[in-house]
Amino acid sequence: ARGLDGRLGELVARRQRAFGVSSVLFYEQPLEIARAEGVFMFDASGKPYLDVYNNVPVVGHCHPAVVAAIAQQAGRLNTNTRYLYESLTTYAETLLGTFPAALSNLSMTCTGSEANDIALRIARAWTGGSGFVVTETAYHGNTSLVMEVSPSSYRKGRELPPHIRTIPAPDSYRLAPGEDLGEVFAGHLQRAIDDLEGSGIRFAGLILDTVFSSDGVFADPPGFLARAVERVHRAGGLFIADEVQPGFGRTGDGYWCFGRHGIEPDVVTLGKPMGNGFPMGGVVTRPELLECFCAETGYFNTFAGNPVAVAAGQAVLDTLQREGLIANANSVGGYLRDGLWRLAQSDARIGDVRGAGLFVGLEFIGVDRAPDGALASHVINAMKERGILIGAAGAYGNVLKIRPALCFSQANADQFLTTLQAVLDVG
Ligand code: PMP
């Protein structure tokens, strides 16, 4: 709270007293957010902020259809999931309709972490192995099992467990001339699998965020993941597609980012946008995989898929469809990336612009493409002062992570581009 005056200082001090070191806040001058609507959030004084960071409210903050669905259901019935109510099954049918036919079973969770925990357990049960491969800066969640495959959370000096191997992210920007991204990535994976097996650890699977968000956002070229998935299956493992970040249409060419790669995962995990802010997650897989897992431990979750959650989730799916938001993500995302490339042409500090739909990464560099995390951090704080909220990704924090709600308009994109240009011109 040092350096902060008045009400803000007092709020921060109270929060730190209550939560200790576990209190995590954005920005040196934290924001007190009072309400939100569409793509905007408003602070306590009423100042609007264009929210280009928060990928949870996928159909827009406080979307009236989602708010009404939650409110009506909360006033009628909320209970655990051991009773029969049609809305849950209808929701599952709608959701599963967006997946390849073989992925025909859904398990509900409350968070992405729980979903990944189950996915890892499915892979362990099915393969009898314990070895997993993940990317170097991956994040998959907060349970003790999922933390093992979340190297980005490891603090100095803490080592990965012996049954986990990390591989470099598929860095399309730093590929040597003539190299094929899919080959390079599959090569790293194969060496990791061989290394596990050579240490007497059976390979259980590969878990990837299909847009590589915390690794720095890598979506192209479409199809580059196919070779890696082939290697996983040849080695007897499962491929887990973590769609917690890119899922529900954000990448603009269908509901799921794995679709861009023409691959069929064995397990898909869902979270963040699923309830537009209402805590929801899920695991989609083939029946035989779920059966194998449940034969070992069973699975019950008191809150997951309760009637209110399902109302939120159904309203999200219906709104995505009704408002054509996936097509909007595609067109506005393309418009935004074109604008960012125009900025890059006159500013050598922007090394790369990439992504798909409204999941966009912009990489700041210095000489010889050295990552410039300090510039990203400066831009993030300066953008906030000018009313735009944005985050960073990548091992060096030098990649702007651009992920607005899918109702982001061209006018919103223009505001973002003009402000970024102004911030870069000053600093
Ligand atoms: N997977 C990915 C790719 C994530 O980004 C996150 C959250 N940042 C999770 C899983 C975990 O989700 P949750 O916080 O809902 O447990």
Automatic annotation (TrEMBL):
<dbReference type="Pfam" id="PF00202">
    <property type="entry name" value="Aminotran_3"/>
</dbReference>
<comment type="similarity">
    <text>Belongs to the class-III pyridoxal-phosphate-dependent aminotransferase family.</text>
</comment>
<keyword id="KW-0663">Pyridoxal phosphate</keyword>
<protein>
    <submittedName>
        <fullName>Aspartate aminotransferase family protein</fullName>
    </submittedName>
</protein>
<dbReference type="InterPro" id="IPR015422">
    <property type="entry name" value="PyrdxlP-dep_Trfase_small"/>
</dbReference>
<dbReference type="InterPro" id="IPR015421">
    <property type="entry name" value="PyrdxlP-dep_Trfase_major"/>
</dbReference>
<dbReference type="InterPro" id="IPR005814">
    <property type="entry name" value="Aminotrans_3"/>
</dbReference>
<keyword id="KW-0808">Transferase</keyword>
<dbReference type="GO" id="GO:0008483">
    <property type="term" value="F:transaminase activity"/>
</dbReference>
<keyword id="KW-0032">Aminotransferase</keyword>
<dbReference type="InterPro" id="IPR015424">
    <property type="entry name" value="PyrdxlP-dep_Trfase"/>
</dbReference>
<dbReference type="InterPro" id="IPR049704">
    <property type="entry name" value="Aminotrans_3_PPA_site"/>
</dbReference>
